[in-house]
Amino acid sequence: MGKSAVIYDFGINLQAETMLTAKEIAKQIGGQILVSESDVIITNAAKLEEGKSDSLGFLSNPKYEQALYETHCGAVIVPLNFKPQHPIAAVLIHHDNPYFAFCTILGKYFDPNKHRTGIESKHIHETAKLGNDVHIGSTAYLEESVSVGNNTIIYPGAYIGRNVKIGNNCIIYPNVVIYSDCIVGNHCIIQAGSVIGGDGFGFAPVNGKYVKIPQVGNVVLEDWVEVGSNCSIDRATMGSTVIKTGTKLDNLVQIAHNVEIGEHTVIAAQTGISGSTKVGGYSQFGGQVGVAGHLTIAPKTSVGGQAGITGNVTEENQKLTGTPATDVRTFLKSVANNRKLSAMMQELETLKREIESIKKL
Amino acid sequence: MGKSAVIYDFGINLQAETMLTAKEIAKQIGGQILVSESDVIITNAAKLEEGKSDSLGFLSNPKYEQALYETHCGAVIVPLNFKPQHPIAAVLIHHDNPYFAFCTILGKYFDPNKHRTGIESKHIHETAKLGNDVHIGSTAYLEESVSVGNNTIIYPGAYIGRNVKIGNNCIIYPNVVIYSDCIVGNHCIIQAGSVIGGDGFGFAPVNGKYVKIPQVGNVVLEDWVEVGSNCSIDRATMGSTVIKTGTKLDNLVQIAHNVEIGEHTVIAAQTGISGSTKVGGYSQFGGQVGVAGHLTIAPKTSVGGQAGITGNVTEENQKLTGTPATDVRTFLKSVANNRKLSAMMQELETLKREIESIKKL
Amino acid sequence: MGKSAVIYDFGINLQAETMLTAKEIAKQIGGQILVSESDVIITNAAKLEEGKSDSLGFLSNPKYEQALYETHCGAVIVPLNFKPQHPIAAVLIHHDNPYFAFCTILGKYFDPNKHRTGIESKHIHETAKLGNDVHIGSTAYLEESVSVGNNTIIYPGAYIGRNVKIGNNCIIYPNVVIYSDCIVGNHCIIQAGSVIGGDGFGFAPVNGKYVKIPQVGNVVLEDWVEVGSNCSIDRATMGSTVIKTGTKLDNLVQIAHNVEIGEHTVIAAQTGISGSTKVGGYSQFGGQVGVAGHLTIAPKTSVGGQAGITGNVTEENQKLTGTPATDVRTFLKSVANNRKLSAMMQELETLKREIESIKKL
After folding, report:
1. What's the CATH number where A29 sits?
2. Chain C residues with CB inside 8 Å of A212's CB?
3. Is residue C86 located within the same domain as residue C216?
4. Structurally, how many domains does chain C consist of?
5. Are B256 and B273 in contact (CB under 8 A)?
6. Is residue C302 within 8 Å of residue C265, measured between CB atoms?
7. Subunits adjacent to chain C (3 or more Cβ pairs under 8 Å)
8. Which end of chain C is more exposed for a tag (fewer CB within 10 A), N or C?
9. pLDDT in tens, A184-211
10. Does A231 reach chain C within 8 Å, measured CB to CB?
11. Is residue A288 domain-resident?
């Protein structure tokens, strides 16, 4: 499961309720239109292969250039220095980052997430403090001393425990659970069903039984953190489990107690980080990776899907994979070597026989 | 974790509230009773080893035949051509598919899932359209423009987002979340806690930070799809993430954005399919399998537990396992070869020494 | 992902609302204070490195002894026979199990989980039976014939199905779903979002399609069982899926239908046990382990993270890892051998060349 942090792949478009001209789009993104005919009307966004005359498309990777000559899209965002080799029917909007510009338009005009407004819930403790323009869905539950920042949206079925602080401009999707004392920064998104601050898995073996160790710490999500659906991030035994600024977790990710994940790190689905491990910033994890406990992983580490990290990673910028994880080249070499094992065994047999015959001479 | 799509293993029976004679059972399943004494009364279903005089059992696999001679079950469904080698106390009901016939009776008379009826919830938007004989549990939440087909059951705590369409005869268990614009076909079952249509994991790296790419697509579950508990199926960036007719997902399965899973495929627990991958129909995945993104997997592919698929699978009917996945025979050969490595090293040492002595001659 | 059942790692302390003297602490845990000055006031608990003059710390592992000489903690629990090599500012409280004693104080005075009291929910069926001092959160849903023991706490958003029996002194966290007929013993804790008793993954292939096999059994959690967040424990096809006394599951664990997990076993996050497998008591599983179906695993088995168990484990006390799992020594030997493969290949080439030259002589 390679990392899927960045996706350049699109399907068909949804019906949009917006109409824009190519000129207006160019203005919105600071792009340039080199030809005069720029008043084509755009009502949706699409892949080049699937667009119609009212669709906006984009070309980012030159290897898909052929699609541009064949597209039915009405307008296409292309690189700043792009020079067509053939005639193109679409209006071209030039921009230095076509994909980013395309996404900007997508998020601004075609995003289906229209959140409700207003306080619907009757399950908000009288001591809870709500900022301006907050939405609380009807079956959401806010405990004693909760505080919620401005413009934050809490969907139905979410449970927000005692003393939890949530910053401004956050979205807490349905059925998210945040246990007491946890802290969520500004601009955070938590997808449905995730659990923030459940008890860490700590038990003391006493006479062959396990006695629960109280988990009295909390979880801190800094700003711009996104947590996928059905993730579990455990509270610290003492102190804090911390996810730093800008870090993004995919779905079904497990973060154990007292873990720290550095800033601007992406972790793909079903990966698990064991207790007290510290992951450096700007790292990337594929899906289903396991990291053992009490380790330190250097910043800018890149880990392949299903890898198992069993020791500290001390140098930055390493690319690791396999279990136990090694650098990618060593892993690939090892896989290739393994495939030659049968041949090696035969050669070994041949050599044995040859030596036997030499010895008989 | 081998696939567990079909389970031939039973424990003890639950208390049933139904009484049937063996004759009635035979009639229900179109089975034959060859002996006259067929009025034994059945009130529950059980394994041959655990049944009592009022239990219905079955024999499907001939290797368990001995249990039939020792069972206390009052009636047993056996293959059509089965001829006992010893006397049997139970009434025998002959059928060409004993296990399927047994399950039919089980589902019809002994299923503990008695769903409630009626509209209990006060959290249904006025624009939502409900079919006939729909049940909506009291804390379920239905957003604007939701439509729900006939005989569909939505349990408490479920959240159904804006514009979601759910077909006829579906069961949506408690605390399921379906985000806006997703489509659920007819006869679908979604077990508790699953999240359908959460945002795909798409971020554009801009100056060392990750900017969220709007996920404006949806999820489409076709007819007869079953989704286990606590699964995550992400909405497409644009277009649709699709699970085709008859496909069954076990628990804790991750389906990333823009994935397509073909028809009549089974995927065991904790497996993850990365973004934009297309899986052909009639495939089978064991548990904890990882599939990388942007791949095409041929129909009728069978994948062993914990395998990691890193490239396209172009031929049908392959059986793959290991990481990176190879066909099962190659994998097993490789495991066997690995176990001989120490012996090989010793042989190599021996040869070296022998050559040294030859050279000294 | 090594097992993280016992965590000796602490972060910074939370603000506490309690004041204790060192003398009172010593009395609470049956510890001894050897020096006279023992009236230091303690208001929180901390790591030795992070404590202040009002913090309680502990020293359990002798390798951290240096931290004791440098700590600012006001009081520290130390081993019974501990003799300092240097002067220590803190008051020492001697105890034969310092960590356990520390946890006792932590759980008694500094636990942030203050549960609510009273029956808030209006979604409790009239036939449900509630014990004394039960708390039911406002959006929790209790179906027909549910019974709940004394002192048990059910948080908002939890769904408790028909006929479910929950014992005394349990905590059911928000948005947990327990399907009909399941049984939860005494002193059990189920963290948020877990699903107990969803349908097992059982389908009969009939003419290329899958027909659902009714899952008419249940789940039984015995006493002192803890289930982490977002776990899935499936009901048996018939009979019971059983988790025995004292067993603890971490987050995102999958337990398939008809599985039995023995007593006092710990299973780390994201592990999956396939259908009908029986795991012996006093076992330990690392994270992301997969166990195939229909196996028997001997008691006291210890399994490393990401291992895949594909066959029965017949001897007790084995330590297994890898896929397919072997004993840890064999696995490590195999990893080491693999790293020598390139060297072996070169040696083989050298030998071939030497033999060629010998043959030419």
Report:
1. 3.40.1390.10
2. 107, 189, 226
3. no
4. 3
5. yes
6. no
7. A, B
8. C
9. 999 999 999 999 999 999 998 888 899 9
10. yes
11. yes
